[in-house]
């Protein structure tokens, strides 16, 4: 692996999930692999899970880690070419990325979208330029339109919790894994959030569906359609109740509108998943990438109930990061 | 040891001090103990000594350390249950603590009191909830009402500087340690400070007095009485001069009123310890937890004089943290 | 080496450059040297290159590193003696430095000048006091008047890129290194910047000139004369074109006036180096300490052109820091 930006950077999803679960079973088995290798984590926006889980993954692989909070350190980056830098930006991404590439063997970058200019956000200009100029393998720690470490984590968690059964066929026993129904449902929020998590979740689930691992449905209010680029093959409906029927996993997430870019179109808690609403599911497991607004996005009863996977899901962030870093280290 | 929140988490004080001083003599003797163990330090408030000394202690034990500054990263935590999170808090402590517990083997938490609602502060709700939800051993890096790593440090420093003498009894020589007189005195400040340090110092000194290690006196202006829960057995007086007589150690600290909660009742520098005031002591050693306001809380002449222990005291923070982490690691 | 504050802390410049380049060739050859040694990096101002390169250098030597951002943590230090600390400063440098000295074997300190009071800035009071009170070897990570790790880096980069030729003398072949012409030129900026980088570069180049390693010229507009203390032996001219003639290395940097202290006297981009201006040079290599304001301080055409050394120069920061730390560790 040379970079990790989207699901296109992974070929066989089942294989990478198995590799991640093997790391979960033996976290320190590859401590030599990253020896004397430096990971630089660059945050242009806040982070809790991503910061800690990626650091831990790197340490499990024997890497050294340096963290750079560029939002905090007052280091506004210029990304446009051909401008006279006589304003507020103090350094161009050409130099900043190249310099960090000099100090690190692998880099990670977090940069949220501005949610004002859709074309600019969806060009992924900042991530792409950083990747070009740093000249080192770059891992997305969430970019303007995707959060692939989260999505890989979600896939790991779904497959980990999908029951296998032993089945007799022609007198022979073999293990059969049921194909779960995974539902992504929009949920309310008071702030306008990026589409990065649902875009990314959707493109990973669509590919998993293609590879025969699961069935994927998306439900959201009208006006919240995601960019079609990410939803190829998914069943999409604005009828939440219909979508939830027989679901095995319900993935809850708010996002702002892609059509009316960055806008909040629906208020009120009508779309918030509750135990009542989930009665039509197949005792569905409940997932959320966190942080979650309790009793606004998702009812406390579900979060604290026996079917919540949110904490295990967050825990699995380590194994997603570790398998990605492992594959990158193996190709340095 | 399963957590470190108050003096109640330590049984024999003399034993833990001896263990800490053994670590001071051989800091790297236990580098294998913490191998592949992750310490997460969570700061909801600023820190210098606690941050650095605890990191160093963990590294001495071979642990890996991740630091999370949650005040800086704009990550306001919700602690109340049953509220709809449609305001400014972005994550509930239930999730935040549980997630950090997924990534770490041991956690440390700093959280200052608001100094507005005494009942809330003294309930130690935040620390207790974090401890419950993280499901890992939790070390207080100063909570609303206590600063136990500081108090353990102070006890180490006092016993380290208490002279032992050789004495003949019935023809046999044995080492006898004098029982020192320790005095905690209130001192002026321009800001309203928590009671955490004096509460904690007092409960540690009271227990040390019970175990026959020292005699303990508290002196402060009227209205600055500490919660009785922390001062059981101490001699308490509002006569500073009387308290200082024959003192071997003078521990200087400001705090805001517990009765008129969070208020400053006394201004002016009348209560500031000076060389003149300390003439009635037994050449007392001077202690302060730092940071100290020079010539407001404590005179420069004392801070820079030969009887000041403040720097050695700060240095001993490492051994207090290290003995606590060592005991926790031994019980994982 | 006991501290690293200025060129006076290094005897033979050629020797230290060779030692640094040996570290570049084998970064991990001394991993045992720093084992169980703690480096504390204290930043009173922002940092990217210095922070990352010094961390990496320390890790290459096997040291542990703790970073303390004192600007961020709201920890305003008092440096004056004899004042009653009843204002906004929360801790005196006497205690802060001494405490950090308790936790670390080697310290680094960054502190920019205020650019208001020249006498105060040029006294280097803060650095000197920190050095005195911490009682440990102290490395300047840029002080009020100097940035020695940058200057050592610059010298390494210049000598690394100075061609050697084989020459026959009396029938024997020997390696001869040409003496390059190094030019420091002032360049425009929109903010008033310290003189630390040009002061420091100048004192290192003047000493290198004394030791026969290069020829050194400074050019700047009238009113931008540096303190003579730093420019001893340099050719100084206000004619930029004259200065650039036959230059092998052009070092571009803005600074505010030393005479009219901290003021910007020249605006406009007339002094900005461009390919056109550099036609009179000997295909000069272009250097800048970064961050650089593109097309204000230095033209993009030069920055992105084949003669730019700015990224390699930034990369060399690691070896400058590593050779300094190595020499300090060898003398602990």
UniProtKB/TrEMBL annotation, chains A, B, C:
Record GO terms (molecular function): amino acid binding; ornithine carbamoyltransferase activity
Keywords (A to Z) from UniProt: Amino-acid biosynthesis, Arginine biosynthesis, Transferase
Pathway: Amino-acid biosynthesis; L-arginine biosynthesis
Biological processes annotated in GO: citrulline biosynthetic process; L-arginine biosynthetic process via ornithine
Domain Aspartate/ornithine carbamoyltransferase Asp/Orn-binding positions: 215-326
Listed SUPFAM superfamilies: Aspartate/ornithine carbamoyltransferase
Binding site for carbamoyl phosphate: 47-50, 75, 110, 147-150, 289-290, 317
E.C. numbers: 2.1.3.11
Binding annotation for N(2)-succinyl-L-ornithine: 142, 189, 253, 293
Residue ranges of domain Aspartate/ornithine carbamoyltransferase carbamoyl-P binding in the record: 3-160
Lineage top rank: taxon: Bacteria
The reaction(s) this protein catalyses: N(2)-succinyl-L-ornithine + carbamoyl phosphate = N(2)-succinyl-L-citrulline + phosphate + H(+)
Function field: Catalyzes the transfer of the carbamoyl group from carbamoyl phosphate to the delta-amino group of N(2)-succinyl-L-ornithine to produce N(2)-succinyl-L-citrulline. Is essential for arginine biosynthesis.
Family (UniProt): Belongs to the aspartate/ornithine carbamoyltransferase superfamily. SOTCase family.
Subunit composition and interactions: Homotrimer.
Name of the protein in question: N-succinylornithine carbamoyltransferase
Species of provenance: Sphingobacterium sp. (strain 21)
């Amino acid at each position: 692996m040379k970079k990790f930006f989207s699901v296109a950077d992974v070929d066989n999803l089942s294989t990478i999930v198995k590799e991640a679960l093997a790391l979960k079973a033996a976290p320190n088995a590859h401590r030599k692999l990253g020896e004397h290798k430096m990971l630089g984590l660059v945050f242009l926006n806040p982070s809790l899970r991503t910061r800690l889980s990626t650091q831990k993954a790197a340490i499990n692989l024997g890497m050294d880690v340096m963290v750079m909070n560029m939002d905090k350190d007052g280091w506004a980056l210029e990304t446009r070419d051909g401008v006279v830098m006589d304003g507020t930006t103090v350094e161009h991404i050409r130099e900043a990325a190249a310099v960090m590439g000099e100090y690190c063997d692998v880099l990670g970058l977090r940069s949220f979208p501005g949610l004002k200019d859709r074309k600019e956000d969806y060009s992924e200009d900042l991530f792409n330029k950083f990747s070009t100029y740093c000249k080192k393998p770059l891992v997305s720690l969430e970019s303007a339109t995707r959060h692939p470490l989260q999505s890989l984590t979600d896939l790991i968690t779904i497959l980990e919790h999908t029951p296998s059964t032993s089945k007799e066929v022609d007198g022979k026993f073999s293990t059969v894994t049921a194909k779960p129904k995974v539902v992504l449902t929009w949920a309310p929020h008071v702030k306008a959030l990026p589409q990065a998590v649902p875009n990314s979740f959707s493109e990973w689930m669509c590919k998993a569906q293609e590879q025969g691992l699961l069935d994927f449905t998306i439900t959201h209010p009208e006006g919240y359609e995601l960019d079609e680029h990410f939803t190829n093959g998914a069943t999409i409906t604005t009828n939440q109740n219909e979508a939830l029927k027989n679901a095995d996993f319900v993935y809850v997430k708010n996002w702002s509108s892609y059509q009316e870019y960055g806008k909040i179109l629906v208020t009120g808690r009508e779309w918030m998943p509750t135990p009542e609403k989930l009665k039509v599911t197949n005792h569905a497991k409940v997932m959320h990438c966190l942080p979650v607004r309790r009793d606004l996005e998702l009812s406390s009863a579900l979060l604290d109930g026996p079917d919540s996977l949110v904490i295990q899901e967050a825990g699995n962030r380590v194994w997603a990061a570790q398998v990605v870093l492992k594959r990158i280290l193996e190709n340095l």
